[in-house]
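Sequence design from tokenized structure. All designs in this work follow the same two-part layout: the structure record, then the generated sequence. An example of the structure record is given first.
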């Protein structure tokens, strides 16, 4: 999963939103598998530390992805709202 989140950062940096979506789906599939196996696995101290490091790395990647996607999401929201306003005006006053 850590490799996938790094790929997600790269996709977000490149504004490859379709690629990012595909990677998100892959991560979700991995999470589902891991949730089913987590209770059955006992980790030693080194493995727990490695797991913690990977989790911290993935959280950092997630923060970077959010930082990169938030401006795009705000722009998309603005476009959607403007389109909705245009439709309401056209409906109220007729198309020009």
């Amino acid at each position: 999963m850590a490799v996938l989140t790094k790929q997600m950062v790269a996709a977000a940096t490149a504004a490859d939103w379709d690629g990012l979506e595909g990677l998100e789906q892959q991560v979700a599939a991995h999470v589902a598998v891991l949730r089913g196996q987590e209770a059955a696995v006992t980790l030693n101290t080194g493995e727990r530390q490695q797991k913690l490091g990977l989790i911290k790395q993935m959280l950092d990647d997630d923060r970077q992805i959010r930082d990169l996607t938030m401006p795009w999401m705000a722009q998309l929201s603005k476009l959607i709202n403007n389109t909705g306003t245009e439709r309401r005006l056209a409906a109220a006053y007729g198309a020009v």
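The mean pLDDT is 89. We note this feature because it recurs in several other targets discussed in the main text.
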